[in-house]
Amino acid sequence: MMRMLWLAVMTAVFVLGAVIAYYNTTPVALDYLGGTSQRPLIFWLLLSFVLGFAAAWLGFVIRGLKLRIELRHLRGRRGGTEPRRKTADAPPTASSAAEINPPVDDSAIPTVSPRAFRRAPIFSDRGNRSCMVHTPFSTID
Predict the structure, then answer these.
(1) How confident is residue 8, by pLDDT bands cut at 50, 70 and 90?
(2) Gyration radius of the chain over CA positions
(3) Which terminal residue of the chain, N or C, has fewer Cβ atoms less than 10 Å from its own Cβ?
């Protein structure tokens, strides 16, 4: 589907360019620093398109080269002795998961009700509570 859409757009652009070229054969003068030149309008349109495309492509190439140089510099700073990996590091073990997630009984952090995600916050201006916070009784003074 996208290929057909792309083909239709490119065909329309080509036909529009051909129509502009056919009806605008009168030379148009362009004054620049080196003098003046008279060419058909389609010549100036195509020239500006090609020069704009070339400038954008050159900008992308320069940016890509800068990123490659920066990457090479960062790899050199790291040491560069490690081979490139095609897979990610190993997942954490069960012992590290226990250190990160403390038992629920030891936790004194208030929890947020899932109801907070079901109602939009706009209901709070009507007096309805859009977020209910559960605080354990042991933490209330």
Answers:
(1) very high
(2) 32
(3) C
Number of structural domains (the chain) is 1
Tell me the residue range of the domain where 43 lies. 2-78
> How many Å apart are CA 2 and CA 62, to the nearest integer?
31
pLDDT tens for residues 13-35? 989 988 888 888 889 898 988 88
Residue 28 near residue 44 (C-beta atoms within 8 A): yes
Contacts 24+ apart (CB under 8 A), 102-105: none
pTM: 0.44
Cβ density class 39-52: b for 16+ within 10 Å, e for less = eeebbeeeeeeeee
Q: Count of CB atoms within 10 A of residue 100's CB? A: 7
Q: Are 131 and 110 in contact (CB under 8 A)?
A: no
Specify if 125 maps to a domain: no
Instruction: Give the whole-angstrom CA distance, residue 67 versus residue 77.
Output: 15
In a domain? residue 90: no
> Beta strand pairing status for 111-112 and 35-40?
unpaired
- 135 located within any domain: no
Q: Is residue 72 part of a domain?
A: yes
Alpha-carbon span 30 to 12, nearest angstrom: 28
